[in-house]
Amino acid sequence: MPALIEVRSSVVPADDLKELSSFASGLNEGELRDLLLALTESLSAGFDFTLLDSSTELTPQQAASRLKMSRTHLYKLLESGEIPSHRVGRDRRITGPDLVNFERRRQAERRALAERFARANQIEREAIDELADEL
User: Fold this and answer.
1) pTM for this one?
2) Residue 132 shares a structural domain with residue 77
3) Most buried by CB count within 10 Å: which residue of 27, 63, 84, 97?
4) What is the pLDDT of residues 65-81, one digit of tens each?
């Protein structure tokens, strides 16, 4: 099996997704069933999917491409230790699980920041309404 499989939702026929979903629904409850159902739901919603073998090691260029950032910025993250890496000779490698963990942390931080901004806006609106009521 290749270490990395990419599936673009735009090229998967809707009939195939329905058939896969039907097949998965007929399986006994478990991780495989959950995986197949999540896959069909994601593809049906228009999301592309990447399956990454847990033993996969990526070059900095490959990791930067996956994270949609410049290689320079990725190297800063590697130097700071935000993304763990190891050396193979003089080259760096990033494991697939380390890259996935970084992306999860980054998404959680973005969500938390968005929630803080939303809460700040709500507090500001409430304060303005309260002042307006007093005037």
Assistant:
1) 0.65
2) yes
3) 63
4) 989 999 999 999 999 99
